[in-house]
Amino acid sequence: MSRAQSPMPPTARTDRAEYSSSFTATLAAVTMSLAVWWMTSRLLVPAIITAGYEGRAFSQLNALFDGRSSHPLTEYLADWQGLARQATWMFILLSAVLIALSIPVNQRLIDRLSPVPHTGNRATVELLSRWRKLQIGVLMTVMLGGHAVSVVLGAELWPFSNYSMYSSLQSDSFSMNQLVVVDSTGAEYVLDEETHFLPFGIRLPASLNNFRWPAPGDTVRLRRAVVAAGALYEKQRLNAIHDGPPLSRIRLYTWTWKLEPAPERGAKPESSTLVFDYAIDH
Amino acid sequence: MPSTTKPALKGNQWLLERVNSAFFEPRSFVELGWLRVLVYATALLLSFTLLGHYALWADVDEVFWQPVFVFQLFSLSPHSPSALLFLLWSFRALLLLAMLGTGGRPIRFAAAVLSLYVFGLPHNFGKVDHGDAVVIFCLVILAFSDADRGFSIRSVWLRTRGLPSTPLRLSPEARWPVASMQLMLTVALAEAGFAKLRTSGFAWITTDNLRFVIERHAFTHQPLLNLSQLFEYVPWLPNAFAGGTVAFEILAPLLIIARGPMKVILLVGVLGMLAGFSAALGIVALQFDLLVLVLFVPWRSVLAKSLRARRWLPRYTILYDGSCGICAKTMRLVGGIDVFKRLEIVDLVNQWDEVTRRFPFVSLDRALVDLHAIRQGESRATAGFDAYQSFARSVPLFWPIWFASYAPVISHVGKRIYRYVADHRHEDGCEIPPIVRS
Asked: How many other C-beta atoms lie within 10 A of the C-beta of residue B361?
């Protein structure tokens, strides 16, 4: 038997057909991926979470839901839905970018903007002058040298740094300063810094920790920081930046947890020490 | 005849050659242009995601003011809310202009200088976030480079006016900024790894240190996974994670000179480590995540290969009976679903001359009874149900059916259905349009 002859040779419309089929293929791939993601996120993962929560899955998966005594299944499913929603939006955004890039007119534009040098294009090779090499050398020396100085001095010289985060050994207990707001009925609320103490967010506890109470020299500053945090909270509540409860008092606690044996997620602290209790003037 | 093979380089020479190649190998300015777009787009994205409520920093009490080195050096301080907003939006505008490759070095320098203040301001209130510094270094490097000589509005503008434009040149000028940005990113990771060993020694890896860190973060952050209970079943796992973390941090700079499988292993390891930070500690080092993806993944090549990925699917020529209405309709449907255009559908009734020329091994009598499919480059055809089964692999929408067709029961039933339809198609088929001879 003779071998099959090759198909018809390409025509002048090859480029247009190529761009068009690339666009169609991209559209199809994105659509199929979205469909698979939708089925995974809406059907498969919730089923796995439910099985793990009810202890019907394999032991390592069941163990991930150790907070089931204080957190209902709906909370875990709600957490997953929130995460899946964010992931879906990112997926849609990336898909839109990909589809936009694959539109034939955009493909043509990108190809025109991105000519690739090869021998047929008569590309020439440039060399760096000694003066240019010196400039590059000085730039890199300054940037790397700044890091080196930071490492030698053991100091944070932002933007240069010795990147010493998490380098110390963590002991089997830890303490943190926690702001608690008190409303007019005396009820205490531990609020989310990301929402109720803008723009600090996660920076607020770290900032309060820097005052290192009970170092006597920083007690005054720590008290002033707590009062300032309360004033910031109230100002933003009155400007409708957040919907927290009206502030009657603000308290600073030092909470301590033991990490051995491993505590349950959301467990109350082993000890709670009231550092400051301040009434807010209205 | 003298030998033309290069002598193998030894030790230091090999390393020097790799480093020299990594930093100064002549490359195209188009590649640098693409990276310019991605880095400035990353900075622009970070300016929106990390700098929310920016103007509120003006209202923060000065008791929280703990200025970092640069702000102390230049006596910088927060301005009024309107001034902060003006600076923030000016910064974003500069990033956009630099991303598009217009305005030249003044724009890129202005963006780099302004980034020190705009990104740096929140770090003066008690906590320093190290990811922003790497972004700033990248902007500084791009400001010093010729980042807009390719894939930029400026290069297009020069070409349209007949002025010299150099996107087709190969130059070390197009390579050193890329390698330098990669170096600053990986040096940050390596420093973090060495800092752990310098401060705590190997106890950072061998003790329960990482387990305690992960447990602590369950209270201070919102990690995606709670690994504490998992560690009870696999007690050596936290030590393995700790060792992997330190190893990949210290080895990260090798990404610049590594090639082939080693580069892939290192890249997957670093990305996995960063993903682990997010999942286990609740810390999303967005700057590091994005810059590793931008600087070390060749997106242009990946995109081009993805768009050509359909070439991995084999091409088939399908011969069908054009006088049969059912067959014609079926082939129109198959052609419509074939989004990757891997199937050539040929009406053997109207194009028999061409068919017999290209596929002399095909029998007309046999082909009029059963659909035939011929894979490109082969000299045999599959017929009937087997033909459908063979070309279905080239149409992703048919893949579920393709997989299922190999199950014995489904295969048996499918063949029976095909046989029935094929044998009765002229009895029950609908009227076909008149044949038009070319």
From this structure: 13
Residue B404 has which token pair?
């299922």
* Best residue in B160, B170, B219 for a mutation probing chain A (most A CBs within 10 Å): B219
Angle at B292 between CA B288 and CA B294, to 5 degrees: 115
What is d(CA A158, CA A153) in angstroms, rounded to the nearest whole number? 13
How many angstroms separate the CA of residue B365 from the nearest CA in chain A?
18
Q: Per the structure block, which two tokens stand in for B245?
A: 């973390």
pTM: 0.75
Contact flag A5-B300 (C-beta cutoff 8 Å): no
- What's the confidence (pLDDT) of residue B58? 92
- Best A126, A221, A223, A258 residue to mutate vs chain B (most B CBs within 10 Å): A126
- Dihedral sign of CA atoms B115, B121, B124, B126 in order: negative
Rg of the Cα trace of chain B? 31
Dump pLDDT digits (tens) for B338-354.
877 789 999 988 888 88
Contact A175, A187 (CB under 8 A): no
| Interchain CB distance below 8 Å, A116 and B28 | yes
pLDDT in tens, A60-114: 677 667 666 667 788 888 888 888 888 888 888 888 888 888 888 887 777 766 6
Nearest CB among B137, B213, B300 relative to A170 is that of: B213
Task: Determine the Cα–Cα distance for residues A144 and B187; give it in Å rounded to an integer.
Answer: 9
Tokens 């809310």 belong to residue? B81
Binary contact (B68, A156; C-beta < 8 A)? yes
- Summarised one tens digit per residue, pLDDT across range B151-166 is 888 887 777 777 666 6
The closest alpha carbon to B118, from B155, B83, B153, belongs to B83
Å between B62 CA and nearest CA of chain A: 9
Closest-CA residue of chain A to B60: A232
Q: Cα–Cα distances in Å, from B426 out to A144, A183, B332?
A: 80, 84, 18
* Subunit contact B128:A161, Cβ cutoff 8 A: yes
Q: Which of A115, A127, A170 sits opposite B168 (nearest CB)?
A: A115
Q: Is B126 left (phi over 0), alpha (psi -120 to 50) or beta?
A: left
Whole-number CA gyration radius for chain A: 30
Q: Which residues on chain A are in Cβ contact (under 8 Å) with B69?
A: 156-158, 160
Q: Exposed (0-12), middle (13-18) or buried (19+): which is A8, by Cβ within 10 Å? A: exposed
Contact predicate B117/B76, CB 8 Å = yes
Q: In Å, how far are A56, A68, B228 from A59, measured between CA atoms?
A: 8, 14, 14
Measured between alpha carbons, how far is A270 from A272 in angstroms, rounded to an integer? 7
> What's the CA dihedral at B418, B420, B421, B422 to 10 degrees?
80
CA dihedral B183, B187, B189, B193 (to 10 degrees): 150
Alpha helices in A119-259 (DSSP H): 130-153, 193-196, 203-210, 219-238
Q: How far is B5 from chain A (nearest CA, A)?
A: 23
Signed CA dihedral, B293, B295, B299, B301: sign only: negative
pLDDT confidence of residue A53: 84
